[in-house]
């Protein structure tokens, strides 16, 4: 099998050719958080944000982002995703934890889709409550699990 690379024979950036890879069941999970003032989290939990249901809108934004990852990240393969879940959980006193899991059966992994889902969900939370708290921080977005494919399983420590 040819070595996977993002460079063609002339050294130019190119999409990796995965056509020779076997289709396998693949899953990736990413996590991150939005840290805010306790008062901001209280507004979100009470449903008192003027723009609406912050966590519900962020969940939908994350799902949509996972489906559009190849349009956002250069050289990323368009994938036929079979499932995306995005969970947003308020964590007292001052954060919203975000976890996204993406699944498919295909020739390439879904790590970028899971990371993109978490990132866009976090940005949506920020956007919806920035008027109340401009000092919010998006933190610690990372891959925590990956399974399937030739490289096997990865679990963050």
TrEMBL record:
It comes from the Bacteria. It comes from Falsiroseomonas stagni DSM 19981. Homohexamer; trimer of dimers. InterPro entries: MoaC, MoaC_bact/euk, MoaC_sf, MoCo_biosynth_MoaA/MoaC, Mopterin_CF_biosynth-C_dom. One of its GO terms (biological process) is Mo-molybdopterin cofactor biosynthetic process. It is an enzyme of class 4 (lyase). This is Cyclic pyranopterin monophosphate synthase. Its EC number is 4.6.1.17. Pathway: Cofactor biosynthesis; molybdopterin biosynthesis. It catalyses: (8S)-3',8-cyclo-7,8-dihydroguanosine 5'-triphosphate = cyclic pyranopterin phosphate + diphosphate.
